[in-house]
# Entry
Amino acid sequence: MNAEIIAVGSELLLGQIANTNAQFLSQQLAELGINVYFHTVVGDNATRLEAAVKAAQKRANLIIFTGGLGPTKDDLTKETIAHLLQRELVMDQEALRSIEEYFKRTKRTMTENNKKQALVLQGAEVLKNDYGMAPGMALTIASITYMLLPGPPKEMRPMFIQYGRPFLMSKLERHERIESRVLRFFGIGESQLETEIADLIDQQSNPTIAPLAGDGEVTLRLTAKHESSLEAKKLLDETEAAIARRVGQYVYGYDNDTLFSKLVERLKEQNKTVAAAESLTGGRFTAELTAISGASQIVKGGVVCYTNEIKEQVLSVPASVLATDGAVSEPCAKLLAEHVRSFCKADIGISFTGVAGPDPLEGKPVGTVYVGISISGQETEVHALLLSGDRETIRTRTIKYGCFAILKKLTASL
Amino acid sequence: MNAEIIAVGSELLLGQIANTNAQFLSQQLAELGINVYFHTVVGDNATRLEAAVKAAQKRANLIIFTGGLGPTKDDLTKETIAHLLQRELVMDQEALRSIEEYFKRTKRTMTENNKKQALVLQGAEVLKNDYGMAPGMALTIASITYMLLPGPPKEMRPMFIQYGRPFLMSKLERHERIESRVLRFFGIGESQLETEIADLIDQQSNPTIAPLAGDGEVTLRLTAKHESSLEAKKLLDETEAAIARRVGQYVYGYDNDTLFSKLVERLKEQNKTVAAAESLTGGRFTAELTAISGASQIVKGGVVCYTNEIKEQVLSVPASVLATDGAVSEPCAKLLAEHVRSFCKADIGISFTGVAGPDPLEGKPVGTVYVGISISGQETEVHALLLSGDRETIRTRTIKYGCFAILKKLTASL
# Structure
């Protein structure tokens, strides 16, 4: 089955909302092993919608529509499809009853145009709307399956999961299972990663290996197909092992993991606490960690030492260090990490100092960054980085680098 | 000019990301008065991309592509278009130099496939990439304008605004000017705002007034059309004044202002400094302020007092207060604000303490929040809030509330 998703709605073409429906349905279809080759967005215009449907009929045997099922004149998805397929629209009594009940329940007056929502394509399977009024529908004509879903994600998502997905599964003839896994990397660029595993990517089609880069990280999505879900997972394991042999040192997690969630998890496991001295990053490191529920077990706190005054008076960096080496320096990062650790009585102290831009500081170029890590009983490490990008990119990469560096040390000490 | 936006990338068809690029570009094109009739998403597949381009050529005279300009084999947008238009790809020396510099600066190894990014369509205007490696390009052939932009939003957005938009404006022949202005509100809900100005929204079509809610804020976008840009702006001024007479007390800024950028701006104007004691928010308040360039003038720093230990030992909240009133209490918020102000020698001290969830704390329900504000020479204020939403929503609304509260006090003291 090859699918195309057609979203109908001028609000999408005006940029008022993003087409998150297509994203959701694509994920769902990928899980069912149905290929999606095109997304199309078209406005509330019958002629252009008709053109979009005709194009889709040539290249897909499953066409899923979202939007345009409402009560107003703008809503013309089913009317257009009825016209194209030469099917009647008939009143669905159950849908009509549920619309009437909705108005009774919310004590609002039902206007005549609301009845329009209960019209469905003759012969279609009606998909119930448990969270709104307009029902969905699905039918197959001349080997093409058409599924019409409402536009509001709050109605569309449960309708698809509850009724649309089972309808499609009954249509699927094969029993192939699809399993996918995302490997998350830090500290390696997309092109270097691809170079390291180019032969693996080229040689194999099951699992497929798809790289994606963003926000200083790279991910590889492995997708395996097999009649048995267990066998598909085994295929994933084998490919993951082959990748890990080459670039395993850069892997930090799977699927929805983040560097921050992994760090919180690891610190909890090892029963260790952290405190941060944040100059460059202004509190973002602790803000990210404390965004995760349960962080109170492992985050002691921190000092946002944005000014030299606070570095000196609160975190006891000697004035001489600030005067000779500067705030953006290895000695300063070292002292900040050590002092914030003792100041907050934490097991691990981390410090971030650097030049976020737009202007150089202390004669040091934008992107100069020092990350200090102080752990009780170990020598303090200072990592010097030179990052590119704008202010926000530099700050984001800095805190991610800090997370990854602590994670590495925690793994080494296991 | 009628536009179609074609996004290229299998990650979109797999549902890994939503097509926010199409949303952004649609908004931008709407502002320029360019109609967008279709969005298309196609995978990293030359045959299907070619089909999509051919369909677009029949219905649009501006085709904007996003994605597929990177270094890997998957990236084939410009190659496919070059083939379709029978244009050569030529090495752009400036782009190549900037890629080489990027690798030099970040001390990473440049692999051969990175050079591919500097190839551009012969005769195209090259659009510089200030935030990444792959340049964009634009050219007009047979009355159709093709614009190729990179996929990562962080690169695509500034490239379009800086270089793509001016290119399109030079192509536009009509003389009607479109001016728009966004008014930003805090402390009033969308439905209340809409009720207050319902008659203004209904009665007028130039400017149009479009409300949008999100992240605890509401905005109104005013859009005016006129042959003269000056007259269009006058129309905006009049409508803005009418709105301000009703709900002006909730307006905090315009367009791309944020509560944080406004606070930094105001503090600079008044030459005042701020320091924060952050329990609930874990450093996010100072992180947001220091994300803005020039914050070093006004942010002294802060203490992330996530544990009671730090509240007591660093910020001198008496153990008795923590034992009887608790960390989430008015007295604690008051002392935290006062003490962080004196501790960091700032003009304004602000504190955030509360229950972010998922579980209640000290017998207080999730969403209980206290914001303390201490200003030299004034009595300390503590605002008690009861917020709804998940952990992140509560934290976000808390720091926004803090910003707005300080802004109000700064305005009052003018």
